[in-house]
Protein 1
Amino acid sequence: MKLYCLSGHPTLPCNILKFKSTTIMLDCGLDMTSTLNFLPLPLVQSPRLCNLPGWSLKDGNAFLDKELKECSGHVFVDSVPEFCLPETELIDLSTVDVILISNYHCMMALPYITEHTGFTGTVYATEPTVQIGRLLMEELVNFIERVPKAQSASLWKNKDIQRLLPSPLKDAVEVSTWRRCYTMQEVNSALSKIQLVGYSQKIELFGAVQVTPLSSGYALGSSNWIIQSHYEKVSYVSGSSLLTTHPQPMDQTSLKNSDVLVLTGLTQIPTANPDGMVGEFCSNLALTVRNGGNVLVPCYPSGVIYDLLECLYQYIDSAGLSSIPFYFISPVANSSLEFSQIFAEWLCHNKQSKVYLPEPPFPHAELIQTNKLKHYPSIHGDFSNDFRQPCVVFTGHPSLRFGDVVHFMELWGKSSLNTVIFTEPDFSYLEALAPYQPLAMKCIYCPIDTRLNFIQVSKLLKEVQPLHVVCPEQYTQPPPAQSHRMDLMIDCQPPPMSYRRAEVLALPFKRRYEKIEIMPELADSLVPMEIKPGISLATVSAVLHTKDNKHVLQPPPRPAQPTSGKKRKRVSDDVPDCQVLKPLLSGSIPVEQFVQTLEKHGFSDIKVEDTAKGHIVLLQEAETLIQIEEDSTHIICDNDEMLRVRLRDLVLKFLQKF
Amino acid sequence: MGAGQDVGRSCILVSIAGKNVMLDCGMHMGFNDDRRFPDFSYITQNGRLTDFLDCVIISHFHLDHCGALPYFSEMVGYDGPIYMTHPTQAICPILLEDYRKIAVDKKGEANFFTSQMIKDCMKKVVAVHLHQTVQVDDELEIKAYYAGHVLGAAMFQIKVGSESVVYTGDYNMTPDRHLGAAWVDKCRPSLLISESTYATTIRDSKRCRERDFLKKVHETVERGGKVLIPVFALGRAQELCILLETFWERMNLKVPIYFSTGLTEKANHYYKLFITWTNQKIRKTFVQRNMFEFKHIKAFDRAFADNPGPMVVFATPGMLHAGQSLQIFRKWAGNEKNMVIMPGYCVQGTVGHKILSGQRKLEMEGRQVLEVKMQVEYMSFSAHADAKGIMQLVGQAEPDSVLLVHGEAKKMEFLRQKIEQEFRVSCYMPANGETVTLPTSPSIPVGISLGLLKREMAQGLLPEAKKLRLLHGTLIMKDSSFRLVSSEQALKELGLAEHQLRFTCRVHLQDTRKEQEMALRVYSHLKSTLQGHCVQHLPDGSVTVESILIQAAAHSEDPGTKVLLVSWTYQDEELGSFLTALLKKGLPQTPS
């Protein structure tokens, strides 16, 4: 059993598990932090961005000034943003049988894998994961395609040139494999390969392995996976949460008794408490608006935004913000808000019972009805007519490199009345802001990451008791910025096995057993024998049938009737079939009793000699000699086959067959 | 306990591998006495139901499948789990409350279940997802499949070890305007319990029926008549509403369409929130246009019935046995311009059933006789599988046997024969109160040591292993764990030593040649005789056939005689004794 690690990003994993005869890809995360190295894609021409100076080497050589621009001491690639794909060379991806998706954030690399590697398998995911994942991809493609960029920089990727660049460009990994965004056609084709599954559904893979998604509590339809055979169990935990937000709570008990637990997707901000962050978010928002400023919230179109809207729903009246317009701008804003209301079965109990009334589970329905929340596909069109300030705008992309958020950064960045509040934890907010510097607007960092923190992890591990834990190497040491915080790492016994990008781990367990079915007719013919108290044995001779990785034992066929009357033509026809196995023997033969038995059966003239290890029984008349030792018996007998068979049967009486 | 050669009061008790599961808990619309609820004393006469039943499963929210549930759980007494899908759990209590109101408030029945009982009953419900495997206990698991009949309708697989039952509830094999088609995988259950409402009907194509329906409605309103469509609030009603709504829009009609009960809007809301349970098309387009937001269909007021001019009214209940649909029917029945369209099945004893069977003079309460002059039409819109659909489902699931319920005996008999002929499986159709016993012979799962299995499978791959091979091993039974291991491993695990039993025979041959030469001759003789066996000539001069050792030696006294020592173990006995016999016959003359 092996684990191939294709992504080094702990929250955007992509691993391949080889288990029994199956090759299973666990998640398909796309590392988008690579886009932070690029210049933002403005929706309307931005003179500021156009006029950034080209970057030149220390010696004044300016051959890269078309590709690289400098802004407040940082260097950016002026090109269509590119993403860092999972490793594609470590293992032949066309051999992947299935891909298991745990949540919609962890499937963003799917089109790259399913469309360009010869993949012919099936992808499994829950319905909300697929629907919202589709929205995220649609948004991404839309953001990038609607601002076509003529320039595609590639010179800087040259290894010899990259060495000369300032950090972080110098240290960027695998730049040669970075790829541009996929097209909608590729997205549709990739999504058509997904088969929908429900929580606790048992899915058979080739009869060899069973996979089951479990609720992970992190997002709508998010799941952990159990991969098991009858005797081995691997748990794959990815993006789980124990907080009560909108999704169904995490199923922990089903993770018990795992041989291996692969642990990914922990919180990226272990020191921040999500509840506190939400409070800070609300108060900063209120403060800015009250002072006449605008609030910009860079966000994904689904997920935490539902919780934020719910908080605001309860908060705005008491904070006197009822007249402030809230705008949600995304090509998929409407779809996201609509979809959130129809997944009752995937929601927490509270929200489920609302649907039974029947009422929409999320209060943003009411915010929309009362015109407090308005949503638009983009800043163009209706939005420009309705736009009133001061206001609050939720829009993407959280990297601040593309999407409508770029426009608002340019528009509001110069005034200190305005505030940008970062809630998504995926991007470093300082790096995200770098190409907009110098900025006058206030920046508030309230990352809300509901995924497991290290205290919760250690509780979880104590609870479910896996034999081995496997995790990204980042979790086995404190975060680099807080190297003294020994509590910010996984602590378990035995210590976790860690992996990094492009590594192959041999998982530490050996398979010993496999399930086989004994047909009822065969079972009836078995004769169990009690060997020790509570332990019975039965020897089994049967025909093995294997089909679709299922094994069945059937009774042996009746011996064929000897073909009488016909003369055998060849000696070889008569050669006994040595395939018929005889049982092993165990026990020992008490000499005296054996001799008595011999006498009873008409042997006379028996002589017994002692030897170093046992005895020799001589049947002088028959010229036969039997050596008896503790663990062996040797019958030396010439000529007389009948005699040999008689003696054999007498010996067997004292022995047990296995 | 119900639905045996009958439609209504669905309730089936299944005992499978020591587990008892009750499927559905319905009421009968044709009766007002004790017969309307199942007789739960069938389950157990002494003792509590909770102790006897492992779980109860409700297939969908129709009252003939869940109408007796509060009576069963609160009045008879059952505290175990009740499984149903989320939409069923949401809608079921509303229909139960409706049913209670009619029974208690209108008919004045005493000793009926109360609103509180409905609430308490629903607290015992555990909601299941489609395809989720629910572990009821360590051995019993259930799994829901999409059934399409109404919103949230499900078929259930009940499984214990290798034995399983699939219960279809009511299902529909053709997708309609708002729901998808039922689907089950090839799960090969020991028994498939299928409804058979339309056991003999093969319905013409859906499109024809829809066109027919629209034509009739259109003609009637054109000539100024009123159309009454008795429906149940949820299910068919929504499909017909979608149908009329799109037709009205296309034809630009202005004739009003009404929906009679206050439940409608709420019902449509359920459809909006549970849109994932509807068909593909509605699900795909719901963001742009929610099919359950109707423009042309308005709420009905009692006074509208006397309005002049044409109109179309959907009214509940669907079988004209009570309520608003019956009231409107009485008002409109006398006018031949009007039309009533029955879009679903009607139970015997209801007004619906009477007019469909051609009765035109109805005796109403208070000995009044109502003459029916209006046109009566029947349109099979009720979403049950027809004969073709039932056969299709049997083909999908590949059961070992089939049991038919929820249909009329005569029609079932026809279908039963058809199933037995086509699938060569036994098919049953018990009446209420009858028990069918099916013998099963489950195989026994054990763990086989991987070493043993791999060794066997590797040998199975060898080309010469075409003949049947026997796997030999030892089954160790300790407590409840059964493991099949190689004999060597069994001995080792139990701390026992192997006892080797060996035989040696001396074969005397007349030969003056040297021992080495003798051995070589033995080797070539055996090599040519025993094809397919491993014959080897070892450097020390001995010959082996598989594990049998043959050594040539000089005779101590007679130089003209050589002795062959043949030695083998008990495990190779047949071959050993065969070789001895073979060698005794002497060696063939070497060709000179």
Protein 2
Amino acid sequence: MFKGPVESKNEAAMSELVPEPRQKPAVPMKPMGINANLLGYIGIDTIIEQMRKKTMKTGFDFNIMVVGQSGLGKSTLVNTLFKSQVSRKSSGWNREEKIPKTVEIKAIGHVIEEGGVKMKLTVIDTPGFGDQINNENCWEPIEKYINEQYEKFLKEEVNIARKKRIPDTRVHCCLYFISPTGHSLRPLDLEFMKHLSKVVNIIPVIAKADTMTLEEKTEFKQRVRKELEVNGIEFYPQKEFDEDLEDKTENDKIRESMPFAVVGSDKEYQVNGKRVLGRKTPWGIIEVENLTHCEFALLRDFVIRTHLQDLKEVTHNIHYETYRAKRLNDNGGLPPMTVETEENHESNL
Amino acid sequence: MAASHGAGQPQNDGCRSLSLSGHVGVDSLPEQLVNKSIKQGFCFNILCIGETGIGKSTLIDSLFNTSFDDPVSTHFQPNVRLRAQTYELQESNVRLKLTIVSTVGFGDQIKKEESYQPIVDYIDAQFEAYLQEELKIKRSLHSYHDTRIHVCLYFISPTGHSLKSLDLLTMKSLDSKVNIIPIIGKADSVSKTELQKFKVKLMSELVSNGVQIYQFPTDDETVSEINAIMNGHLPFAVVGSTEEVKVENKMVKARQYPWGIVQVEDENHCDFVKLREMLICTNMEDLREQTHAQHYELYRRCRLEEMGFRDTGPENKPVSLQEAYEAKRHEFYIEMQRKEEEMRQVFVQRVKEKEAILKEAEQEIQAKFEHLKRLHQEERLKLEKNRRVLEDEMAMFIKKKAAAELLQTQALVSTPVNFKKDKDRKNFT
């Protein structure tokens, strides 16, 4: 059944004759899309395979930042997520090291290879966050770091002779660790998320979830969600970026179960004849990957297996573009050369 | 085009390779990327350059197994134009926005020096549109409908001898802007032995003239072998057909001649299958990537330099484009202000002049008025004087009349004899 060619016959007259552009190349009008029915297999769908091969060759970048007070299990969780010793702790950090007086930013890079896919993973740790007596503005160094990465990317993008692949150091995802008090969010938590939710994708997680019972967990999560909503804080996945109905339903489900209450561990124990990652306590073994025990598996699947590419895309298409637009609009902070030219021009007048 | 940004080459400097103690799920990344691309859909733009009647539309119809129905053009076009049409094709879950741009009237003119210019301008216009979008402050690159030409199929006439000078000229002006795949159109008019010689001659001419045609990439092991073989078969000798002929109980695309049937999809008859294989099934993504990473970047670089931006400032210190952009913007702003001031001055000047003229005119009129008033005044005085004189005369006359009448009555009383004479005499005095 061919509707295609008949339609295109009538619309053939619509085919745009591109006006001859002279000196300045004119932007031609966009031609109309006409649906054409295919009479046989061509092989257009092989482009998927071509694309897949190319991406496997080039590899992926992923930069994840962990923020939270010390002792909340950040390093352990990151190790559990990536099933290896990625954290600062394991890269030579000494447990006896003093807590820094200001928030420091430490980025460590690793290369993970699985199934022929290479990923350059950078874990950015923020020791010292929320650990002082006076925690005023302790999110500022973090915000500064994130903006610096955007600035670096912008500078590269705006070069005349640019690199084939601009190294991407922008923070794609920020895991924010909430203390499992069982009551509500701390003022520091709200302040941090308020400032940073517009700049980076924040995924709040409830740390050390093994200290709460199931009811306490549900109540706490509800309260946290309510508080975030009341304060206008949008965590990832943001409602405004849902592309279509499918995305919306999928993301709604996830948003309803966030923040994920997680437990991390890098030790293995024998449970029911299987080796599992867990925490051994006098009253039992808490299995990290058991969904009835904690939501670690949900977090892992969410961040790595389903939404990693989306995290990167939201960072690139939205947060980075916002930064860029603001930066290009701002006239402030121009180097002295512009002030000189202004003076010169005034003297000419 | 999600593949082009963000995916950096994993550098092993300073980074430890991790050994995983379990399944992380990183291997799902290509799948995630591919799914996003599928959702967005793909764009592919083909430019067909060739003389009128060489079989461009038929070949495209054969390649995409559908009838796009382009109207047939005449040989009497005054100059070369381009016709662009976009189609939306779908195969399984892949949506492709295919744009076919064909030349109209190429090679038909008597004077052909300007023939290639509209083509170059069109390609540049697409790059320019993309560049403008990229330079915008508020931009939407990832939903931008990419109209840049990804591949140029250059149709060579099957003369059997060599390249025409128009072909050389056109290809030379396009080789740094677009991926060129030369093909021999209507190849069923060249015999097998002639074809081999023809191909060799064409390739050597291209090489000796320094024309850069697209080389199928040989860096990926899975396709390097087949690509290398295909590179040796260039230019592809193609035959297109949308008509079907029955051959051995099957309907195949073919051209029927009195002496036989040329089957389009038979590799012994022509290179159509090779072209389709190379263009669509193997290298579509590479063509898109080359266009973006090589041709577009070159265009962008030249254009930005043309606009006056530099990567290094006057003292050879690296100047960011953004700073240069800001400086230029500031410059323009100052210039604009200066021009405004100038215009304002000119305006003020003109107003003053006009005012002066008007004032002069006013004064003139005033002077005239005064003059007229004076004249009027003088007239009036004169008339007054005359009136008085007249009145005096009248008074005198009345007096004389009265005196005469008195004398008359006296005379009537005394001497009636001399009455008539005296009266006459008196009347005459």
